[in-house]
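Appendix B. Chain record.
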Amino acid sequence: MRRSKFIPIAALSVLSALFSLSAYSSAIEDLDALLSGIQTLSADVQQLIVESDGGVLEESQIRMQLKKPDGFYWETIEPFPELIVTNGIKLWNYQPDLEQVVVEDWETDQSELAAQLLSGRTDNLQKEYSIAEDDASFNEFRRFKLTPLESGNIYSSIAIRFAENKLESIIMDSKNGERTVWNFASVTINAIIDDDVFTFDAPAGIEIIKNNYSQ
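Structure tokens predicted for this chain:
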């Protein structure tokens, strides 16, 4: 069964968060220092969806690219080819097996977290999450934990881990017991990425579905 596009949108929200943080506490200053100077990032991502009993519900192989402030590219290679891409104005969701692409206006309030992070506004972030460096951090390994302050947040916690100052993994624990794990490999920082990467031209014969979109 095809997964909801919520997962890549969540990825956009959380990953964009990491590259938009402003220092407002010791932990955030440390996290910001690890990410400072990063303008672009490319990586291969192993995504695991883990059920509350520990069983792996789904494993996906993904190629992602990020370019500050608004560019985000999330292509699922396996098991179900799919592309989520945005330039901060439009959002394209291309599903080649269905021969269709859904085009939407990217509204900054689509996701409360994404709105803060894509736009670089972090004032509300500190009101919604407590952020601390985890006790699991040591030597070349650093681990930061984001804990929602509001009971209505869908996450119980978000953990961000670095190895030798490079992003290694993000683990998002949902309140329903499901866990989403992103393991990063082949990470490339500040390589040139053309802006055209973050737009999508539909191939001939592909159905275009426009939601809240006008030419």
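Further analysis of this model is presented in Appendix C.
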